[in-house]
Amino acid sequence: MLGTFRDAFKIPELKNRLLFTVLMVGVYRIGCHLPTPGINGQALSQIFPKGGIFQFWDLFVGGALSSATIFALGIMPYISSSIIFQLLTSVVPYLEKLAKEGEEGRRRITQYTRYGTIVLSLIQSYGMAIGLERMPTSTPIVTSPGISFRLLTMLTFTTGSGLIMWLGEQISERGIGNGMSLLIYASIVSRIPSVFGLTVQYLQQGILNPFVVLLLVVLMVAVVAGAIVLTQAQRRIPVQYPRQVRGRRVVGGQKSYLPLRINQAGVIPIIFAVSLLMLPGVVSNVVRNPTLSNLLGNWSKWNSIPYNVAYVLLIVFFSFFYTAITFNPIDIADNMKKYGGFIPGVRPGKATAEHLDFIMTRVTLPGALALAFIAVFPVVVYRRFGIDYVIANFFGGTSLLIIVGVALDTASQMESHLLMRHYDGFMKKGRLRGRR
Predict the structure, then answer these.
(1) Of 2, 29, 203, 389, which one is least surrounded by beta carbons within 10 A?
(2) Secondary structure element (H or E) that encloses residue 249, with its range
(3) How confident is the model over 52-80, as pLDDT tens digits?
(4) 297 vs 183: CA distance, rounded Å
(5) What is the structure's pLDDT at 84?
(6) What are φ and ψ of residue 261, in 5° steps?
(7) Could you report the per-residue pLDDT of 28-44, keeping only the tens digit for each?
(8) Residue 196 lies in a domain
(9) Is residue 195 part of a domain?
(10) What is the rounded distance in angstroms from the CA atom of residue 218 to the CA atom of residue 203?
(11) Listed residue (292, 249, 297, 252) closest to 277, CA to CA
(12) Model pTM?
C-alpha cells in the first residue's frame, strides 16, 4: 500500500491532482471554522439539537451548522437543486432534449443547477436567519436581530454555499474527481476524533458499558464489510460478440460480461431522502402557526416510527429513481445490437432491453433495502442500547457507508491512473473489482 502511494507521487499529473485536491479540501475545512457575523456560534453549539435531521445535516457539513459558520448550508442546496433538475429532466421536454445533446446539453443543465443552488441557498439561509432569531435561549444567539441581520446572513450563507459548489467542481475537473463526495467525506472524517473523545468520556463517566462499546466495534466491522459488499457487488450478464475480420485481424468471438451493480445509485438515495425530510423541520422554524409548527416538528423527530418509515420508503424510491435515470436498457440494447452483441438465449433489440430492465429491477430491490437498513441502523442501536445518536451513527450507519464508498471510488480512480502507466495498483494480485 505504501509503495503504491509512492508510485502515485512519481506520476507528475497524478501528483498534481492529489496536491490540488488536498489544497481544496484544506480551504473547505478552513471555511467550516470561519464564524458568521452577528451570530454567537458558541452559544448555538451548546443548545444545538442532538440527533435528528439537523444533527445529520451537521455531520455532512463537518460541524459548520452547529456553529453557524459561513459554510453552514454545506453542499445541501446543490444536492437539492440536482434532485429538482433530475426530476424535471424526465418531465420537461426542453430539459430532456438538452440531456440528449451530449456534453453541451449537460453543460447547460449544470448551469441551471448552479442557478437553482443559489436560489435555494437564499431561501434556506432566510429560514435559518429567522429560526436563529426566534430561538428561546438565556444567552442571545443573534446579537442584533432585524432585517439587516437577515440580509447579511443570506449573503454570507449563500456565498459560502456557492464557494463550496465551486470547490467541488474544481476537485472534479482538476483534482482526483468526485469533488462533492470528497467534501462530504472530509466533513464526516473530521468529526471522528470528537466522536472517539466523546466515547472515551462516556466510558470514564460510566455512561457507557465497556461490553456495549465492544459490541459497537464488532457491529462497526460488520457494517464496513457489508458496505464494501454492497458497494462492489455486481450481477454479471454474459454477452457474446461474433467474430469479425478487420484487415488481417480477427476480432470478437469472445464472451464478455455486462456488470450490473446492485447498488447502482450509491449513497445518492440517502442524500436525496435527507434533503426532503429536512424540509418539515426548516418550515416549522419559519411558520408562525403554532399548530402547523408543532405538527411539522413532531413529524421531523428522528427517532419516531413515522419519520423512519418515510426515510426507508424514500431511500427505496430514490434508489429505483436514480437507477432509472443512470441506467438506460434501451440504449444498451441498441449499442449491443449495433456491434453484433447479444445475450445468449435472448433476442437482440426490444427483448434484450426488457431482459436487462427485469434483471436490474430485481437486483436493485435488495440493494435498496440493504441501503435503507444501514441508514436506519443508528436509530435501532439508539433505541436498543440508549447510546448517543452521534456515537451510534459513526459506529454503524450512513457515515460509514459514505466513507467506504468514497474511499473505494477514489482508490479505483487512482488505480486507473497507475495502471495506465504500468504501475501496480492498490491490489497487487488484482484490481478493485466487483463481487458477484
Answers:
(1) 2
(2) strand 249-252
(3) 567 777 777 888 888 888 998 888 888 88
(4) 29
(5) 83
(6) -75, 140
(7) 999 888 888 888 878 88
(8) no
(9) no
(10) 17
(11) 297
(12) 0.79
